[in-house]
Specification:
By secondary structure, the chain is an all-alpha fold. It has helices at about 1-20, 25-60, 65-70. The chain has three helices and no strands. The radius of gyration is 22 Å and the shape is elongated.
């Protein structure tokens, strides 16, 4: 369902750009947005890898189970 919504939004933007004569601006905005999205994703990969590694160390050391027992309702 969400895929259909995205397709409708993209097609609507392209039709609106074609009708107003701003196809170049829409193309530039979409490529700039894609570049920013990739930079954000790559920046978050390092942080995610660090915390996943920390959780793995806690799990193998047994501290994660202790914390789970302590925080159990």
């Amino acid at each position: 369902m969400l895929n259909i919504i995205w397709v409708i939004m993209v097609l609507g933007a392209l039709v609106a750009a074609a009708l107003t004569g701003r196809v170049d601006e829409v193309t530039k905005a979409s490529t700039d947005s894609a570049k920013v999205a990739v930079e954000l994703a790559l920046g978050l990969v390092g942080v995610m890898a660090f915390w996943l590694g920390m959780m793995r160390i806690l799990q193998r050391g047994g501290l994660l189970d202790s914390m789970a027992r302590f925080l159990k309702p």
